[in-house]
Amino acid sequence: MLLDIFLEQSGQFLSGEEISRRLNISRTAVWKQINKLRSAGYEFEALPRLGYRMTEKPEPLDPAVLSACLTNRSFGHQIEVLRSTTSTQEDARRLAEEGAPEGTLVIAEEQTGGRGRMGKKFYSPFGKGIWMSLILRPTQPLHLTQQLTLLTGVAVRRAILKTTGIEAGIKWPNDLLIDGKKVCGILLESANEDEFVRYCIAGIGISVNLKEEDYPDELKSIATSLRMASGHNINRNELICSILNEIESLYGLYNEQGFEPIASLWEASSVTMNREVCVQSPRGVINGTAAGLHPSGALLVRNEDGELTPVFSGDITLQR
Amino acid sequence: MLLDIFLEQSGQFLSGEEISRRLNISRTAVWKQINKLRSAGYEFEALPRLGYRMTEKPEPLDPAVLSACLTNRSFGHQIEVLRSTTSTQEDARRLAEEGAPEGTLVIAEEQTGGRGRMGKKFYSPFGKGIWMSLILRPTQPLHLTQQLTLLTGVAVRRAILKTTGIEAGIKWPNDLLIDGKKVCGILLESANEDEFVRYCIAGIGISVNLKEEDYPDELKSIATSLRMASGHNINRNELICSILNEIESLYGLYNEQGFEPIASLWEASSVTMNREVCVQSPRGVINGTAAGLHPSGALLVRNEDGELTPVFSGDITLQR
Question: Which reactions are catalysed by this chain (chains A, B) (predicted)?
């Protein structure tokens, strides 16, 4: 097999002629197989006369590596790893409806219909990112659900910092940015009966090992990845474990001490705080300065007259 | 057919012998067929020597009658009438996920797995009640969802009053009582993305034409029906229309003027107000006097020291 030949060769060049001879296939067939491997996440340098050299092989999501890395008690101990799925949110929702316990995780190499907030698409190409959904069964009443969105953002930021050294900033409510570009989106879906939360699905999408050329044109100016920020590939299995450890740890703190310590952590790592913001909320446009978090998790915006308005939902633009 | 003979006879007695002769079946077969009709909602008086007389025939849910009664613009104009289903909530949820518009109604003659709050069963026998689920797509943020539960309770109470003259009282958050016994339960389920409500399903279950003997023993002391309260059968199609008209009208008021007018209506028709209450909430037991509604829809409970605590969820007991 072509892949075996390259793996044996460990980084050395192989000419197309040599490969074609060893596999007894045409040069065109060699080229086609290399492109197939490329689309599966393998990378090759191709040079005239020298031929091909494998420069990178994908590091697949691996339940065994994951469970070896987990130091927590429950989050991620039940895990479903998928090669491709429409949306891990849908899979996790189905599992939650079937009674899956808190901490159950669904993760996929690729989402073909990844979703962001407000019905937007979420770009989730094969093997390049962390596209995952975690089932929570919180005891807090419905109207405090926003707090869990913020908690998740803080946890993912901490995991990225610990694993890669990269300091992402949190843009209210749930985007992580590096140098103003989005590297992670969080979407918390909940299913409720009156004020009782049946379950939440915390959807986390992180652009890990994408290169600039991996993005469609419309995303190039607004999106970035951990690889682009750090200059090298990041081990996804390690990062996932770190995220699960951080979420479980903050969630425990939250259940013991309430939202206040989470709010402090959020305020300390937010790029929204003390900035001039323009919020497009369902109730109209609100301009002012982001002044902190309301105890419910809403963003407090101070207008020119010093009045504070809690903003519960909306799209926010940071002004210069 | 046996039914045709009784329908022709319009309330007159027919002897078993006569029926057995006209249908050319045995007396035992007559008796069996009458019992079959009874379980389908028909009622018979049986007297020695005179025989049988049909005293009541079921009034089935009828989409044609329903749509003729509706005076509103949209709620209930898309309707699915089912003979039997597990739970109209599940059916409505499926329709909502498929994109059904606000105001879509699912109604069933019988639920085999009707659900109440906190996973409790909801008794929903064939032909005797209103077991229905209405799809709402509110624009209010998630943390105000409780307000819609209260709005629904007010609307159903008004419809019952207008249609039957019976004054039910609202027990916070969403039970309707007659003389301290439950006649209607309301369950509002919501599906959300962050603070954005994708849809709500307002589940409404009303015991309309049940007689005391229709209830299982464990419900006899705590449940009642509109028939038991009024002494006669109530036309379900008319009541359903009235409910849809009331909900649409209050919902319009709510969208224009906010929760305040709804809260006033609720407070005026609640049996919880100004009563000593004991609340079993997820955060512990709260004792005090029900003092009114918090602007979010929570119940304000005043303790001995005069402090007000908003209660968002829980089971409430009214003290003597």
Answer: biotin + L-lysyl-[protein] + ATP = N(6)-biotinyl-L-lysyl-[protein] + AMP + diphosphate + H(+)
Decide: helix, strand or coil at residue B10. Answer: coil
Mark yes or no for CB contact B188/A189 under 8 Å: no
Contacts of A89 in chain B (CB under 8 A): none
The Cα diameter of chain A in Å comes to 79
Mutation for B interface: A142, A174, A175, A311, most B CBs within 10 A? A142
DSSP character for A117? G
CA B168 to chain centre: 12
Fold of B2-56: Arc Repressor Mutant, subunit A (1.10.10)
What is the distance between the alpha carbons of residues A9 and A283, in angstroms, rounded to a whole number?
A: 62
> Does A116 belong to an annotated binding site?
yes
Measured distance CA(B25)–CA(B18) in Å, rounded: 10
- What tens digit of pLDDT does each residue of A196-235 get? 899 999 999 999 999 999 999 999 999 999 999 999 999 9
Domain ranges for chain A? 2-56, 63-268, 276-318
- The reply to whether residue B194 touches residue A313, judged by beta carbons under 8 angstroms, is yes
Contact partners, residue A71, CB within 8 Å, separation at least 6: A241, A245
Exposed e or buried b per residue across B206-241, where buried means at least 16 C-beta atoms within 10 angstroms of its C-beta? bbbbbeeebbeeebeeebbbbbbbeeebbebbbbbb
Task: Tell me if A259 sits within 8 A of A147, measured CB to CB.
Answer: yes
Size of interface A-B (CB pairs under 8 A): 90
Q: Write down the residue that tokens 């379900």 correspond to.
A: B236
CATH 3.10.180.10 fits A63-268, yes or no: no
Domain A276-318 has CATH 2.30.30.100: yes
Query: Is the CB of residue B142 less than 8 Å from the CB of residue B190?
Result: yes
Equal CATH topology for A2-56 and A276-318: no
Residues in B touching A139 (Cβ below 8 Å): 282
Q: Label the pairing between strands A105-108 and A79-82.
A: parallel
Global ipTM: 0.79
* A-proximal residues of B, 157-216, CB under 8 Å: 173-174, 187-196
Compute φ and ψ for B100, nearest 5 degrees: -55, 140
Alpha-carbon radius of gyration of chain B? 22
- Taking contacts as CB-CB distances below 8 angstroms, the residues of chain A near B116 are none
User: Is the Cβ–Cβ distance between A169 and A269 less than 8 Å?
Assistant: yes
Beta-carbon separation of A193 and B145 below 8 A:
no
pLDDT tens column, B246-298:
999 999 999 999 999 999 999 999 999 999 999 987 778 999 999 999 988 89
Annotated binding-site members of B:
111, 115-117, 182
For A70-118, where are the alpha helices, taking DSSP H only? 88-97
**H/E segment holding residue B217:** helix B217-220
Which of A117, A141, A149 has its CB closest to that of B313?
A141
Q: How far is A44 from chain B (nearest CA, A)?
A: 41
Cβ distance B195 to A146 less than 8 Å, yes or no, reads: yes
pLDDT digits (tens, 9 = 90+) for A118-161: 778 899 999 999 999 999 999 888 888 999 999 999 999 999 99
User: A145–B142: do the CB atoms touch at under 8 Å?
Assistant: yes
Among candidate residues A180, A206, A194, the one with its CA nearest the CA of residue A88: A206
Please judge whether A173 and B192 are an interchain contact, meaning their C-beta atoms are less than 8 angstroms apart: no
Tokens of B300: 């304000």
Contact across the interface for B141 and A312, Cβ inside 8 Å: yes
